[in-house]
Structure prediction request, 371 residues.
Amino acid sequence: MQSSAQFVPSVAETDSLRVGVVGLGFAGTTHLDAFTALPGATVVALAGQEPARLAELGSTRNVPNLYADWQDLVARDDIDVVSIGVPNDLHHPIAVAALNAGKHVFCEKPLAVSGLLAAEMVEAARRNDRVLEVAYNHRRRADVQYLRRYLDDRPLGAVYHTRASWLRRSGIPGMGSWFTSKAAAGGGPLIDLGSHVLDIALYLLDEPRVKSVSAIAHNELGRAGRGGGHHQVSGGASGVAFDVEDFTSALLRFEDGSSMHLEASWASYSKANEDIEVELLGAEGGARLHVDNYATSGTVTLYQDVAGAPSIVRPTITVPSGHHQAVIAEFIAAITSGNYEKHYGEFALHRSRVVDAIYRSAHEGREVEVA
Ligand SMILES: NC(=O)c1ccc[n+]([C@@H]2O[C@H](COP(=O)([O-])OP(=O)(O)OC[C@H]3O[C@@H](n4cnc5c(N)ncnc54)[C@H](O)[C@@H]3O)[C@@H](O)[C@H]2O)c1
Prediction:
């Protein structure tokens, strides 16, 4: 453990939430920079297992308290918020410990590696009356927000089917790292990428409940060592080469009789590049979000009948970056509001249960009910 002198808040910092960030990879660094950029929060502690990176982030971001292990960070009684950017299997122990210690928690997606563990996290948030927020940052894209506003007027009529997918041609992250270990990650592209498009779709559809799912999963490329991508991972080797899927396809049935086709791949011999898609088919119109390789314009198409003729509308929307910052700003606002009833992580729990059901359906080869 690397520790520094006891932290004494400065006058300026006493008005801020005191934040400890766990993780030094893409997620942890993004959380660190987002909290640092926002008013109302000061990052006072950082934890992670790459000593050189820890020292570099500590000095460049002016974080005074540095730890190798999350337990030492959570043990500090002068921290209000713990921000979690570590492998998926660590979300549950860190969040539950932090919530039980009276801290608010900002957690990376997925909430946990299983619906059961996710439920325990939500229960800990509710019992301790602390905010548990999850980093579904892509819903904060300007094009998703545009669609959310567009749908508020119900121009599509009843949406009876949705297609949601995140597909890569060649993008398995960190082959042999925690990402490709079932125990550490909970699964492959479904839990990693599919959970984002599932979130966007459920958010746009006003949170319908998924009743049952029928799914398949394959791992032809990953288990053959093909399909690795450029995605950098900080965590070391997991000891497992590849025991997750590289492709999942699922049909979801909602309680109201509508449906969704959800697909996610890290690798596939296909036209996919890095394609995010959510397409809504309504009785009176349609809408499509298609983001090709993190495109920042031209991503929304609307389908309507205008004066009786099938018509296509392409609104001009530019998508700035900073989606994590937007989610973290909402998290800070939720804490400041003092009313946490809608912020115990319940919407993320439903997503975890849907992901669980998809894996179970693929494993058992049959349609299964969502818990
Ligand atoms: N929302 C997004 O867009 C997005 C993008 C990437 C990753 N993620 C999520 O963020 C999380 C982390 O992903 P990543 O790509 O940053 O992973 P990573 O492997 O690059 O980084 C993981 C970090 O966790 C740290 N860590 C591991 N064990 C620890 C311990 N016991 N104590 C303290 N630190 C510990 C490691 O030292 C490392 O710095 C995952 O849950 C992933 O799903 C989300």
About this structure: DSSP finds eleven helices and 15 strands in the chain. The radius of gyration is 21 Å. The pocket of nicotinamide-adenine-dinucleotide is lined by residues 22-28, 47-50, 69-70, 85-88, 90, 108-109, 135, 137, 192, 233-235 (CB under 6 Å).
